[in-house]
Amino acid sequence: MTTTNLRDHALSFRALHVAGRPLVLPNAWDAASARVIEAAGAAAVATTSAGVAWDLGAADGDRLGGDRALGAVARIAGAVGVPVTADIESGYAADPAGVARTVREVLAAGAVGVNIEDALYEGDAEYEGSASLRTVAGQAERIAAARAAADAADVPLFINARIDTYLRGVGELTDRAGVTLERAAAFLAAGADGIFVPGAVDPGTVRTLVEGIDGPLNVMAGPGAPTVAEFAGLGVARISVGSGIAQAAHAVVREAARELLAEGTYASLAGGLDYGELNTLFAG
């Protein structure tokens, strides 16, 4: 994809983030899932780092090398005509310069958005436990490096800064919104375009975040969460489902395998997509 086409895709993707009229992003993990999602009517496709890692035989949580992850992003972007945003975990790098390099590779792969999370994992120099997050200043430097790399490429990459305060249960619940808003303000000032707060689905919490964040809010939905219409009413600008679709797909694999092996029957295969329909998605 040329720089001009990337820029056009990036501008189109950016325009889809409207508070109260959220961009709904089913998350894909390979070319086939991306093509099916596009055919279902999605305006854009997001990747799921967990789904990509599992597809490539690795665990989620910064355990998949950047080269393999970005190879999957390239295959997904090459399979669809709509904009693609890539979940790049912590940036597949130990320092801001490495994050900048990853962003350049994301653009080369054909994606026009990224999620960059602030969680730390075992092996990170700053890691002090399962609930650890990067320092605000340290994460802001990584976001600024990502912004500078995209600007240098003349592509308005949409940087979605993920804040894991709710997902990881950081701090007391009564202080969590304040901590999240503080981090959000710093990350937006560093060059982020939107804020992603997975784990925050309570309507009161979501409204507090929408009102306190000077940018589009992305939430992660799933069973038991408010509907898309309800999130829209709260002012949410973007809704994704993380690894949820991949998990559901793999549950079908397990159930079908167990039934076939234990019962010798095939009821779990009922309702599958038609072979011809799937094959047509990739023909020509």
UniProtKB/TrEMBL annotation:
<dbReference type="InterPro" id="IPR039556">
    <property type="entry name" value="ICL/PEPM"/>
</dbReference>
<dbReference type="InterPro" id="IPR040442">
    <property type="entry name" value="Pyrv_kinase-like_dom_sf"/>
</dbReference>
<protein>
    <submittedName>
        <fullName>Isocitrate lyase/phosphoenolpyruvate mutase family protein</fullName>
    </submittedName>
</protein>
<dbReference type="InterPro" id="IPR015813">
    <property type="entry name" value="Pyrv/PenolPyrv_kinase-like_dom"/>
</dbReference>
<dbReference type="GO" id="GO:0016829">
    <property type="term" value="F:lyase activity"/>
</dbReference>
<keyword id="KW-0456">Lyase</keyword>
<dbReference type="Pfam" id="PF13714">
    <property type="entry name" value="PEP_mutase"/>
</dbReference>
